Amino acid sequence: MGSHFTLPKGVAPCDGDAALCALLEPIRARYDLPSFAAAIVTIGERADVCTRICAVGYRQRGAAKPAVTVNDRWHIGSNTKAMTATVAARLVERGLLSWDTRVSACFPKFACHAAASSITLRQLLTHQSGLAANLSVAQTARARASQSELRQQRRQLVARLLSSPPSESPGTYSNLGFVVAAAMLEEVANCSFRELLQRELFAPLGVQSAGFGQSNTAGRADQPVGHGADGAPALGAGADNVPLLDPAGRVHLTLADWGRFVGEHMLGRRARSDLLPASTFVFLHGECSDRGSGSGWIPLTREWAGGLALTHSGSNTLNYAVVWMAPERGVAFLVCTNQANEQTAKACDEVVVALLDLWKSNSDEHNDKNNKKQNRTTTTTTPSSEASQPCEINITTGGCLTKDLPLLQPVWIGSLVAIRLITRPSADFVRYP
Questions:
Q1: φ and ψ at residue 107, rounded to 5 degrees
Q2: Among 321, 358, 368, 388, CA closest to 78
């Protein structure tokens, strides 16, 4: 890394929860990342959602100021997909379409190849459509040059995709699938995807910080600036995917607002959400299917989670974000950083493990106090034997080798596709969520 992109020496500035800051700063320094932001989101019987947040480090390399804050807006990449799927569920519950509605039924005037005629909304949102993973270089160039409204751009993309057979096998992680799904939602609701996201999700949850694309103003470090694998800050305009890909991975927002969304999914499974029925949240999370994928979530089994653990990550190759949720425990862990390279996923895994250990320690202490007050012995809800287990991170597999601690999701998750693409030495480099 060149000296121009080095970080100031000494302990980085911290904002927010002191206990979380103490955990994050050593990991940030060890991996030489500009910053970390993290949150522990919990739900309880009285308060709906409680979020502990911290931020450590710098918005931009090579500058001691400004430091990141707990109110900064972070690019969450493909974690946007869970939001798109939640909006789709709202429209399904309203009867505007069904999970088995075919793309061709929403666009009856488009010529449709026989092999593409059976693609459904359900398949698009669970990576079972067979559509390509990403836009081609030519498609991306066309999108960057287009002056058309985004809704019209998506309609044009759908027309091209329907005219030929799917290029991949079902199960291929597809960003295009979510773009096509959003086009279906726009068609049946007769409004833009951004309007739908605001009306159906952000407004009901009280999310006020959300936007699309890079969070900083071009040329300024007024928000976390994304950094490439070489540590170079991407300060210029357009340091993200093309807006056509909004539904697949271009949302930025504060950790508090992301926590509101994730917390709503935990509340929803307990029938405490006004957004959707509990059964629909279960469907979105995908644990009852044989697909290996939910709609923007990957369902796994972890002892520390009390069974089901849900995870996903996102990256535009300049930022990285990951979420782990344990619905049965009522806890979730969110981690963001403003640099993406081959070590970023490993670093974020270490942060998740540290947050998990802290949460379990606090949970055990709380249970011990309650046990003493009640003067009786009960079993704690969190397996305390896990707290002291070391986590060996294997960069080859990108995961934690201790089976009951967090394991990074399978290699076909979108953010890892992006991480592999970081080293592509092309001047026309295309960033994918």
A1: -130, 65
A2: 321
Query: How far is 152 from 150, CA to CA, in rounded Å?
Result: 5
Q: DSSP for 38-103, please give it.
A: EEEEE--SSSS-EEEEEEEEBSSTT-S-SBP-TT--EE-GGGHHHHHHHHHHHHHHTTS--TT-BH
Give Cα 138 to chain centroid, integer Å.
Answer: 27
CA gap 397, 359 in Å, rounded: 26
**Per-residue model confidence as pLDDT tens digits over 352-378:** 999 999 999 988 655 655 555 444 433
Of 196, 181, 48, 204, the residue nearest 125 (C-alpha): 181
Judge contact between 256 and 262, C-beta under 8 A.
no
Contact between residue 157 and residue 199 where contact means Cβ atoms under 8 Å apart = no
Neighbours of 311 (CB within 10 A): 23
Closest C-alpha to 161, from 195, 191, 133: 133
Three-state secondary structure call for residue 14: strand
Query: 324: which 2 tokens?
Result: 């782990």
Characterise 292 by phi-psi region: left (phi > 0), alpha (psi -120 to 50), beta (else): left
Residue with tokens 């096998």: 169
DSSP 8-state code for residue 16 = E
Alpha-carbon gap, residue 103 to 106, rounded angstroms? 5
Q: Which two tokens stand for residue 245?
A: 């890909």
Using CB atoms within 10 Å of the CB of residue 379, give its burial: 0 to 12 exposed, 13 to 18 middle, 19+ buried. exposed
- Is 319 within 8 Å of 215 (Cβ atoms)? no
Q: Which residue has the tokens 């806890």?
A: 331
pTM: 0.85
How many Cβ atoms are within 10 Å of 308's Cβ, its own excluded? 19
d(CA 279, CA 265): 11
Cα of first residue to Cα of last residue in the chain, in angstroms, is: 24
Angle between helices 255-269 and 80-93 (to 10 degrees): 50
pLDDT, tens digit, 9 for 90 and up, residues 91-150: 999 999 999 999 999 999 999 999 999 999 999 999 999 999 999 999 999 999 999 999
